Amino acid sequence: GLRELLEELTEHGPILLVLDDVWQGSEFFLRKFQIDLPGYKTLVTSRSDFSSLWSTYHLKPLKDEDARSLLIQWASPPHHISVDDEYEDLLQKILKRCNGFPLVIEVVGISLRGKALYLWKGQVESWSEGETILSNPTVLQRLQPSFNALQPHLKECFLVMGSFLEDQKIWASLIIDICVELFGRGSSSSTNVYMKYLNDLASQNLLKLVPLGTNEHEDGFYSELLVTQHDILR
């Protein structure tokens, strides 16, 4: 039925079918949309990597200008602002906390929509006093499912990342050594097992692996990898 519908629709022009927020484990479902038709393309957005099915483009955090536009779109400027410089200063402080993360910008922007300037100031000052973006329950609700869906051994590795300071580039070998020491089951291949776990987390965009050398496919290549993580995820 799907193929017949697409054939009928493509008679009237090209079609782009968008499947939004597809979760890990949906490969069998996605294969049903791999239909060879002229003028038909499929775009999948996901927190996971489906590179075995299609070519993959990893979205980066928003650049400053785009992040600012998105925040203004969701928040709308507070009414009766007499000092534009003050408003711009608040925008920049909020954007710094959001780190170019579209989902967080959306949630924070909606929470400030239509609010008076003093409430914008209060939000920014609360962050300075130790409150975090994740104190907003809506942000936490939107991010928590990504963690809940992890298998127990991946949760262990993910939580190890919280042992490091923000904005760190960490040697993959160091993280693997910590995981082997804390969670290793005595297997001689533990280092390779935990390297696989790091790759699994990277495929779900919960951390990023940055290669330093060119020997990525040789044994022990994890010694030439750095691991980074978005501050919000940390």
UniProtKB/TrEMBL annotation:
InterPro entries: Apaf_helical, P-loop_NTPase, WH-like_DNA-bd_sf. The keyword Membrane does not apply. Keywords: Plant defense. This is Probable disease resistance protein At5g66910.
